[in-house]
Amino acid sequence: MNSTTKNISYENLWRKDLGELKKEVITMWRQHNPGLEEEKAEERANQIVLVVKNEYEQVIGVSTAFKVYIKQFRNFMYSIRLMVLPEYRSQKLATDLLVRSRDFLESIHQEDLPDPPIGMITLVENELLKKNKREAIWPASKMIYAGNSSKGHHIRVYYFKGATI
Predict the structure, then answer these.
(1) H or E segment and range at residue 39
(2) Is the pLDDT of residue 115 over 90?
(3) Is the pLDDT of residue 3 over 90?
(4) pTM
(5) Residue 97 to residues 32, 36, 127, 130, 163: CA-CA distances in angstroms?
(6) Which domains does the chain have, with CATH numbers?
(7) How many CB atoms neighbour CB 102 within 10 A?
(8) How sure is the predictor about 91, in pLDDT bands with cuts at 50, 70 and 90?
(9) Is the pLDDT higher at 60 or at 126?
(10) How far apart are CA 65 and CA 101, in angstroms?
């Protein structure tokens, strides 16, 4: 799933060796999230779905996912996270990264045995997103508002086509 749009490229690294890219991604995460421990960053690096690079081949965004059992839904889902560098943040880039990650995970979820995930779940921690993207169903990604976490973050879910509960 490599493609380029306006000098931005997306690379699928799901369950692949990151090589030298791993250090660059971890550095980016830790610079923009100083509370992220090295051990957690290493674990997250093994969960990368897509990386977004600029025209200079520098990482400017990343999506990660891991399979988790959601007790409320009595099913496994992919917990998905996005990180886009502040200077590249635009609704279009974040949305595009989310949609591309969703489409990929939907295409492989049935092979993720045992217990294939039925969809994706995410916490929206970004205050601007929570304030400005209040549609019950986000138009591009089709992620549905499912309530708030105990910390007040929006919970969004997306069910894969054909998912059963």
Answers:
(1) helix 38-45
(2) yes
(3) no
(4) 0.90
(5) 18, 22, 19, 18, 22
(6) 3-159 (3.40.630.30)
(7) 23
(8) low
(9) 60
(10) 9
Q: How far is CA 51 from the centre of its chain?
A: 10
Q: What amino acid is encoded at 100 in this protein?
A: R
| Pair of tokens at residue 12 | 């699928």
Q: Where would I find the beta strands (DSSP E) of the chain?
A: 3-5, 8-12, 48-53, 59-70, 75-84, 119-124, 144-148, 154-159
Instruction: Note the residue count of the chain.
Output: 165
Mean pLDDT of 69-98: 91
Structure tokens at 138: 């986000």
pLDDT tops 50 at residue 147: yes
Could you tell me the two tokens for 139?
């138009």
Whether 46 contacts 60, CB under 8 Å: no
Here the tokens at position 99 are: 């949609």
